[in-house]
Amino acid sequence: MENLQIAGDKKIATPGRSRRSLRFVFRIILLLLFVAGLFLSCLPWGWATVRSALILPALLSTSQSAPLALGGDPIKHTQMTVSSNTGTVNLDIYQPTVPVPLVATVRSGVLIIPGVGDNRRDPQLVNLSEEMARSGLVVMNMLTPALANYRITAQDSDATVQAFQALSHLPGMEHSHSGIIAFSGGVPLACFAAADPRIRMQVASVTLFGGYFNTTSLLRAFGRRAIDIDGKKEKWQPNIVPLQTIANTITQDFTQSEQDLITNAVNTNTLLAVSVIRSLSPGAQAAYHPLMGDEPERVDANLAALPPAVHVLLAELSPGRAIQQIRAPMYLLHDRNDTLVPVTESRAFAAALTKFHHPYDYVEFHIFDHVEVRANSNLGLILGDGSHLFSLLNKILVASS
Fold first, then answer.
1. Angle at Cα 229 formed by Cα 225 and Cα 232, nearest 5°?
2. Among 13, 150, 195, 260, who pairs with 325 as Cys (CB 3.0-4.6 Å)?
């Protein structure tokens, strides 16, 4: 008897047919799992998705990713130096100690420029570097003498090129395409290096977090203590670190006395006496006022009065001058309420990339304080910003595959 008849037209399948149906369903599930596993482990975009999911927790906190802590690659941290036109470059390398996986012929890598100051022991940077290495990437963090002394110089682009080439020549990295990630004051160096003919065809992606686009417009925002955003003027009080960095950078050609007076005023946030200001050269006065923000209504006049050499320097330090020579896709990230570099700088960067039809993505965040994760962000912001971070991270890793 093939079927049992009950309650008129209702039928109950025999046990044999039920078992065959279940076996068919299980086979379909196994096939789907196999295809998913093949996609996630063997195809570049699938492996990038896995890596993105594993690395994301390190971007959102200072804690380790539990899956990477349990099953990630064992890693080692080593240090080395390379020479450049501006001196010795210190490099910290985080890399897996296991062989290159079968799904790849070479490893992917990333060069990180953490910004001004010596950030090599920063907990969030160390955690991010270690987690990326546990996911199979080779990570190199770089520090130049100028960055260590809170100065930005365009000549450090050679240091960045030398570091990138050193990364490319590490074991397992031959013929690889690595990305560059730059934070804050490291952004101009990333752009200048990515545009350099020596490496621009090997750079897989350029990720810029919390950087500026034009040095003059940045100095104008300092001087105004305000930004124009979304059709209105918004008060903006800069953090002392970028003020110190720009002060150290643009006063180098002033007399030593003028350098000391201006940088000390910035460092202590103390206005100079009127008589002392008047003793400065016209060019030094023009630099002093935007840095101190004491003449917001005269900021354009003060910028115009800067010495010609400072105008040349400001143009030289602007990342915008290099974007037409960059070949890699660019990814811009910025804290909407950033007090170190105004978000308007990344918006201007995105507008320029649109104008030149350069491939890019741009995302503004609310869970970061400049480039570090804010404590106690609410769950809604974490989920929203986390999804954007995951999408960007996936694109960056696919580009390096």
1. 85
2. 195
Same domain, 302 and 366: no
* 380 Cβ neighbours under 8 A, 6+ residues apart: none
Q: CA dist 159 to 91, 126, 142, 181, 239, Å? A: 11, 21, 9, 15, 27
> Are the beta carbons of 362 and 346 closer than 8 angstroms?
yes
DSSP per residue over 99-150, as a string?
A: PPPTT-SS--EEEEE--SS--TT-HHHHHHHHHHHHTT-EEEEEE-HHHHTT
Q: With contact defined as beta carbons under 8 Å apart, do 204 and 177 qualify?
A: yes
Residue given tokens 């008897």 in the structure block: 1
77: three-class secondary structure by DSSP = strand
Structural domain range at position 289: 215-314
10 burial class (0-12, 13-18, 19+ CB within 10 angstroms)?
Answer: exposed
DSSP string, 206-260: EEEES--S-HHHHHHHHHHTEEEETTEEEE----HHHHHHHHHHHTTTS-HHHHH
The angle that helices 256-268 and 282-292 make with each other, rounded to 10 degrees, is 10
Q: Classify residue 270 as exposed, middle or buried by CB count within 10 Å of its CB (0-12, 13-18, 19+).
A: exposed
**pLDDT digits over 208-229, tens only?**
999 999 999 999 999 999 999 9
pLDDT tens for residues 349-370?
A: 999 999 999 999 999 999 889 9
Structure tokens at 148: 């260590």
pLDDT in tens, 236-263: 999 999 999 999 999 999 999 999 999 9
Q: Residue 21 in 3-state DSSP?
A: helix
Q: Token pair of 33, please?
A: 């799992």
The answer on 325 and 291 residing in a single domain is no
Domain count within the chain? 3
Closest-CA residue to 333 (of 323, 321, 341, 324): 341
Tokens of 262: 């201006």
